[in-house]
Amino acid sequence: MPFAHILCRAIRCCTAPLVHLVCLLMLVALPPHVSAAEDITLAVVTKPGSAQYVCAERFAQLLAERSDKRFNVVLHHSASLGTETDILQQVQLGAVQMAIVTTGTLDAFVPEMAALDFPFLFTDTATADRVLDGPVGRGLLDRLSTAGFKGLHFSENGFRHLTNSIRPVMTPDDVRGLKIRVMESQVHRELWRTLGANPTPMGWPIYAELQQGTLDGQENPLWVIAEYRLNEVQKHLSLTGHVYSTHTDLANLAWFEALPANDRRLLASCMQEAALWQRAWSRQRDAAYLEQLRTAGMQVIERPDIATFRQRVQPLSGSALFEHKGVRKALEDLMAATRAR
User: Which of 60, 170, 279, 312 is most exposed by smallest CB count within 10 Å?
Assistant: First the structure.
């Protein structure tokens, strides 16, 4: 019991108005009891200004405002906790409560997530939004529970494009033999192997490897190429748009389910709003990023032979990657959803 209450109870029998006044002044003067904010650890592999960081920062702001600062998001960034695979393992263990990761890295944990990175699955962002925010997208987020994750929402990485330091890439034949950095993802390895490249799975960042010539190229959305100044070590950019890449916003399942129902709803709604806000933020900057890269000296092929790229990668749908019944079903559901109106 607070000291002021104890004091007032002890002298309750006293009827002197002055004593009552002293007790009242003591109660008013003492600060109200304030509970310490609960820290939530949230990890991203990229740096401030990145799409992941922007989404995480927006989520932290919304959660602090709407919880009356009961929650404090501690944001780890710039690969301070390792690669995205490292981060996901730490979320599984409960050492990190939340993360925003590139969806391609999740196929090693939940095979069905591989379907989302099937090449040329989405033709535009409107279709991607409709499918990902609909029942098929929700179903994939729910599948994350099999690996100990709570899938909250999809934010945006963007359409992935190819860069390299060797030659312009107009057709799949131009890719042959290039050492391309890919995510730690089976789908991305097989995609580039099918196109004749030499895919090299590697964590992020990769500037030094590109600079030293350990790698010939890489593939990422425009914001990544610009924010990480890859134009300094890559001469050629081809707007292949071969994969629409999502970020998956997730939490440790046991930690999330142990929260009170109201807090679970609050965290989920804040993350949904942050993800939608970040998608719009990224799309507004795409054209400017492209112009920035062109001005910096990159040679840009705006219209590579996409039809031939599509044709070359179609056999992937019948590969061993998609033999698993659940993965096959996920891909079929996604393809059907993209065609629905």
Answer: 170
Give phi and psi for 235, each to the nearest 5.
-90, -30
pTM for the full model?
A: 0.87
Name residues whose C-beta falls within 8 Å of residue 222's C-beta, 6 or more positions apart in sequence: 158, 161, 286, 289, 290, 293
Contact 51, 282 (CB under 8 A): yes
| Cα–Cα–Cα angle for 162, 165, 168, rounded to 5 degrees | 60
As a CATH number, domain 38-339 is 3.40.190.170
The CA R_g of the chain, rounded to the nearest whole Å, is 25
Q: How far is CA 290 from the centre of its chain?
A: 22
- Buried b or exposed e, range 34-68, using 16+ CB within 10 angstroms: eeeeeebbbbbbbbeebbbbbbbbbbbebbbeebe
